[in-house]
# Entry
Amino acid sequence: MKDTIKFTSLQLITLVTLRILIGWHLLFEGISKLTSPGWSSLGFLKESKWIFSDLSQWIISNGKVLEAVNFLNTWGLIAIGLGLILGLFTRVAAFSGTLLLLIYYSMNPPLVGLEYSVPFEGNYLIVSKTLIEAVALMMIAFFPTSLVFGLDIFIDRYRNRKKEKNYTIQG
# Structure
C-alpha cells in the first residue's frame, strides 16, 4: 500500500513561490539575451577553466556552433522560465533548468586555483548561487507543485480521463 504524504498549505505555497521565482529569473535572463543586440555567450565561454574548457574553445572556434549555442541558450532559458511560471511541463522544465545551470556551473566553477579575468558577482568558494538554484530546481522536479497551482493540472486531468475511458472499454 502506498503511503501518501500530506503537505501544509504553507509548504505548498512556499514551493510554488520558489518555482515561480526561479522561473521568473530564468525567463528574464532569456529575454534580456534576446533583446540585447549583439549578445553572445562568447565572453562566458572564453572564461571556461575547468572540465569543459576544451569544449568551450571548440564552440568559440566554430561560428555556426557558437550561433547555435547562443540560440539554444536564449530560447532554452525562455522556455524553461515559462514552463516553471505557468506550471506547464514542470518536471521537464525543472530537470532541463537543472541541467543547464549545472553546465553553467561546470564551465566556470568557483574553485580554489581557478582565476578569472572577468570579476564575478560575490566571492564564492565551491557553492555559488548557480549551484543553489540548480539544486532548488531538482527539488522542484520531485514535488508536484504544478498539480497544486499550474497548467499541468489540465494535462493530469486529461490523462486520468483517458485512463478511465480505456479502463471502461477494456473492462
Q: What stands out?
A: Residues 9-35 form the longest helix (27 residues).
